[in-house]
Design goal:
The chain has helices spanning 10-21, 54-58, 72-76, 98-101, 103-106, 151-158, 168-189, 202-218, 225-238, 245-251, 262-271, 277-292, and strands spanning 2-6, 25-29, 36-41, 47-50, 62-65, 88-92, 111-116, 119-124, 127-132, 136-140, 162-164. β3 and β4 form a beta hairpin. The chain is 42% helix and 19% strand. The chain folds into 2 domains: 2-166, NAD(P)-binding Rossmann-like Domain (Rossmann fold), CATH 3.40.50.720; 169-292, N-(1-d-carboxylethyl)-l-norvaline Dehydrogenase, domain 2 (Orthogonal Bundle), CATH 1.10.1040. Bound molecules: NADP nicotinamide-adenine-dinucleotide phosphate.
């Protein structure tokens, strides 16, 4: 397939290399002005990708957008003029609501949402480390996206495990719930995920999960407090030594994805007239820190 990766950061570079190695024609679309970008995975020989090539973009069968949630609109909309309506758009980021914001502009395309637990890190512009193997779930955002189940084979061949989830909305909410529980607290406290199992966080985590359960149930997502709590605790244990992305973003004073994680939860809660004071406080605290830094792009 002809594939363009928009936003070749950590996760985008990982997929770019894996899809190229699987035999696809892969090009990049970045914020840089280079015509080509070399990328090396885990110290292997560098691979060269063309960058910001409009012809290759226009010829794409699949465009995978791997920017952060708050960058989706700015990264995607200028490219639409070059794309055929048949080009599949796949969005792979944490958080929810970013694709909804541009839904009317992109609805002519088949749209696929992806959520992944693969982990990657980019120590410098030309290197990427695959720091953790994980699962990737794909699902349709619109009617035309439902015809894209074949993408499971394409992606799975490049970087397993990939599966199709007809209930991707539920999978995204489940991931959002885990992010709401882990990210703001680890960011504000500057602690590793595992430290959340300390008793001092017990009440706050319980309150976050209670609020999440109410909102998710109001959204029609089948879940219980016990299920969510078990899930959150499992992830805290399994990723005990990890630094959450929000912890890292706040450490480096980079804009976080809080608006599309806790912010999305709060927006949905308001829609259902549900009070979520604990999540609201976390959002306010993270936003206060963000606004105390110099303006980020
Ligand atoms: N990294 C992981 O292990 C991981 C795992 C699971 C999910 N995720 C999620 O995946 C998403 C991406 O994460 P990441 O860690 O890969 O972030 P990242 O390293 O910051 O990558 C984002 C990339 O998008 C580029 N970009 C931003 N705006 C753009 C634009 N307008 N046009 C083209 N490119 C643009 C950025 O360019 P600059 O370099 O110029 O900033 C950067 O290279 C996030 O939602 C994250 O939460 C990440």
């Amino acid at each position: 397939m002809n594939i363009t990766i928009v936003g070749p950061g950590a996760i985008g570079s990982l997929w770019a290399i894996k899809l190229l190695q699987a035999g696809h024609n892969v090009s990049l679309w970045s914020r840089t002005t280079y015509n080509s970008i070399d990328l090396s995975l885990d110290g292997q020989a560098s691979l060269s990708f063309s960058n910001n090539n409009i012809e290759k973009l226009s010829a794409s069968d699949l465009v995978i957008v791997t920017v952060k949630a708050w960058q989706v609109e700015e990264a995607t909309t200028p490219l639409l003029q070059y794309l055929d309506p048949d080009t599949i758009l796949m969005f792979m980021h944490n958080g929810m609501g970013a694709v909804d914001e541009i839904a009317t502009q992109i609805d002519a395309h088949p749209i696929v949402l992806a959520t992944t637990t693969q982990a990657a890190f980019k120590p410098d512009r030309n290197s990427v480390s695959h720091t953790g193997a994980g699962q990737t779930q794909l699902g349709a955002f619109n009617q035309a996206g439902k015809k894209c189940t074949f993408l499971v084979d394409v992606l799975n061949h490049a970087l397993p495990n990939v599966s199709w989830n007809p209930e991707i909305h539920t999978a995204l909410w489940t991931k959002l719930a885990i992010n709401c529980a882990i990210n703001p607290l680890t960011g504000l406290e500057q602690i590793k995920n595992g430290e959340l199992s300390e008793p001092r966080f017990g009440n706050t985590l319980t309150a976050i999960i209670e609020e999440l359960t109410q909102v998710m149930q109001a959204e029609g997502i089948s879940c219980s407090f016990d299920e969510l709590e078990t899930n959150v605790n499992k992830v805290i244990q399994a990723t005990a030594k990890n630094n959450s992305s929000m912890k890292q973003d706040m450490f480096y004073q980079r804009r976080t994805e809080i608006d599309f994680i806790t912010g999305f939860l709060i927006e949905t809660a308001h829609k259902h007239q549900i009070d979520v004071p604990v999540n609201q406080t976390l959002l306010t605290q993270v936003k206060e820190q963000e606004s105390s830094w110099k303006k980020q792009d």
